[in-house]
Predict the 3D structure of the following.
Amino acid sequence: MKHQSKFGEVPKLTLRQKILLKINGEVFIGYKQGIGDHGKVPVFVVHCSEHGNYLDTPHGWCNYFSCDECFDERIQKCHVPATAST
Ligand SMILES: [Zn+2]
């Protein structure tokens, strides 16, 4: 079941973005207006092994990403970007 992401549809990726997504599991695509009064937030395309690519902004102290559909299914897997470990 597919539902609307909080940041809309995943845009068509360039070859470079596809490669970065493959290597890192996420790729930065730009700033978008977030929910509430947070102003513009950095938005990434993140790959979920269950649901494919989705849009998200980093959450929490370790800047993790979470797939809405995994969350809905209470799997609550997180993708922690490689860059957060430094
Ligand atoms: Zn998922």
About this structure: Residues 48, 50-51, 67, 69-70 surround zinc ion (CB under 6 Å).
